[in-house]
Design a protein that fits this description.
The chain is an alpha/beta fold. The protein has one domain: Alpha-Beta Barrel (TIM Barrel). Helix content is 21%, strand content 27%. It contains five helices and nine strands; from the N terminus they run βββαβαβββαβαβα. A nine-stranded mixed sheet has the order 3-1-2-4-5-6-7-8-9. Strand 4, helix 2 and strand 5 form a beta-alpha-beta unit. The longest helix is centred in the C-terminal third of the chain and has 14 residues. The two termini are 28 Å apart.
């Protein structure tokens, strides 16, 4: 399988339970909830995305002929040292491309694999840390994992219903939008009203990391 990667680089994980962890960030191109074209945003299922996942022209991006080649690219970005290797795979929607050969190849390079998905495609086996971020209007089939990250506010999502799913951690993250102050207030209010939820901020944007 050929893999289309928008970008890949060494950084610190900026969101969720593993915030602050050194990681190779691997962003696949493509998504099933929005084309990535501004002309299509208004009609998209996910119309608040703040990410460029179109093409393969980002830092460390490109097309990779097979799993071993891509895993080698990730290992080269990490550099020396085999302990505590972490790769964070996202998109777009990573489950459109992530498969068992790539999971095996990354494990062979001693990486723990964290994935951030919208949950509309079942997760491939072998992932070490699975984060699901549901989007209103989509059909979420992956209702279990390590971390549920709810971007808030979203009309059409009931946090109480999400609490019936099987996750270890429940995070509410303010939507990155024009009225950011209102989004932060809404996320704080949710965490205060429903103690299962913890407030999560996009630390990489606060400290100026990619």
């Amino acid at each position: 399988m050929t893999y289309a990667v928008k970008e890949a680089f060494l950084t610190l994980q900026g969101e969720g339970v593993q915030t602050g962890s050194r990681a190779v960030f691997l962003r696949f191109a493509g998504c099933n909830l929005w084309s990535g074209r501004e002309a299509d945003r208004a009609a998209a299922v996910c119309n608040f995305c703040d990410t460029d996942f179109v093409g393969t022209d980002g830092i460390g991006g490109g097309k990779f002929a097979d799993a071993d080649q891509l895993a080698g690219h990730v290992a080269a970005l990490w550099g020396e040292g085999g302990d505590q290797r972490l790769v964070v795979i996202t998109g777009g929607e990573p489950m459109l491309q992530l498969d068992s050969p790539l999971v095996d190849a990354l494990h062979a390079q001693y990486f723990r694999i964290a994935v951030e998905s919208n949950g509309t495609i079942a997760a491939v086996p072998g992932i070490d840390w699975l984060c699901i971020s549901p989007k209103a209007g989509s059909e979420v089939v992956q209702r279990s994992g390590n971390e549920l990250k709810l971007v808030w506010p979203q009309a059409g999502i009931d946090p109480a219903a999400l609490e019936q799913w099987a996750f270890d951690h429940w995070l509410v993250q303010p939507m990155d939008c024009v009225d950011g102050e209102a989004a932060r207030a809404a996320a704080i209010a949710l965490a205060m009203e429903r103690p299962r939820w913890r407030l999560s901020l996009q630390a990489h944007k606060i400290v100026g990391l990619a």
